[in-house]
Amino acid sequence: MAASRMVTDATFADEVLRSEMPVLVDFWAESCPPCGRVAPVLDEVASEMGDRVKVVKLDIDANPDTARAYVVLSVPTLIVFKDGRPVQSVTGARAKGDLVRLVESAL
After folding, report:
1. pLDDT in tens, 5-20
2. S-S: 55 plus which of 46, 80, 94, 105, CB 3.0-4.6 Å?
3. Active site residue: 35, 49, 55, 106, which one?
């Protein structure tokens, strides 16, 4: 997988909760400048680690149910899910190395 892909409230369970591999979910919003800065970094992580982790994005404005379910209060919020459960999370734009370590801690 070369880049992160979008999920919605309707596809979240299939794409994230039922995934065979860990999933890094980027909860973001169009109106969030730091979200735009972290997007290319997430695409790099997806490209380099796509054989071990799935990277997906969820627009919280268009998909409020999932954001509410995981108490996403600010964006970007990045949550790693493993076996259908959130296991690690960070809020705010992060450097690539921080995101790689976040993912690796869940592998």
Report:
1. 999 999 999 999 999 9
2. 46
3. 35
